[in-house]
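Recall the central idea of this unit: under ordinary conditions, the amino acid sequence of a chain determines the structure it adopts. In this exercise we apply that idea directly, starting from the sequence alone.
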Amino acid sequence: MKIVHLSDLHIGAKIDKEERIEEFQEIFSFIKDFLKKESVKILFITGDVFDSYYPSHESLDLFYGFMKEVSDIVEKTFIISGNHDSSSFLGVNRHFFNERGIKIFYDISEDFNNLKEEFVIDGEKILVQGLPYINDVKILYTILKNKGLEGVNISEYKSIYDGIISVFKNIAKSSDANYKVFMAHLLIDIPLSFTSEVEIFSLDPSIFQDNPYNYVALGHVHRFSKINRLDNIYYAGSLLRLNFGEKNDEKGFILIDTSSNSVKFIPVPAWGMQEVELNGVSSLLDLEKMIDIEYKDKTIYKFRISYKSPLTYSEIIDYLKKNYGNMLRLEAKLVNRGYDKSDLDIFQMDENDIILNFYKRYKGVDDDNPLLIEFKNNLLELLNEN
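Accordingly, the structure predicted from this sequence is:
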């Protein structure tokens, strides 16, 4: 039996203000053709289905269309929510999904029994368990509330996850299924600094000791990877290059063959990314002469330009979009006035974008940094409450 593991779709991801609909359509078409060709029976999607809590109509159309077509190809699809997703939003249309053999694990019950499904395909009994993303900030808040600031440390954070995953493992151990899968959206064996002394958000692989699973499907990390020291725990990575830090990463998904117990990475036709840096540009003629690249289709460009008046930001962005398409990002610095514009005109930004832009530019934080993502999600929740 063949299984495909996708993750971190981030449908609705933008370059500047442009959604990457065409790129998603190409990749989804590639995946659908692959599922048919390989006669795949089961599909896993391990979180970050959407890039934001409130996806656009175009993103919803893209996702529901993809799911409808996929449900005509595979027998079962399982989805968990990630940190970019609104779990309740994903769960709203569970009846639409259930009718098509698509199960969404989004609501965590006290005993976790709602986060599993057992079924039989081709005479093989399968157990699938899915752990939706658990808000790290809420975990820290619980620790702070119960134990105070001194309670915030690696062992305390990990003990909460260890308790949760132990319950899942015990459920799996009691099952007589032939093939057992655990899905989760979390960090394992990848250090992220919470402070200069404490690495708190990454779990140790020992959390999966006495592992009862044939395969553990993980999401959250955007690069295909196998967890060191463990034979069957994998990140599928993201389908798109979501920022320029990923420009050299190969993107794709995982194919699992249960008959041979093999795991294979399958690349997808993700668009390329190219960065261009230019200094001392004083006119559009200068700009034209200094750009030593030709436009390539299915490539996203990032221009980092320092320029002088009377040349303006608007003139630069208009020229670039005319010659390099709308899928580009501009960081432009006016060097003879000290006025700085990065990525977007500040006068077109909302409060959320201004704060995020500040942290990305001056604090050296990447778009996919979990702390920045967590801050963004919680800020959105606060703004919506108000």
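The chain has a mean pLDDT of 84.
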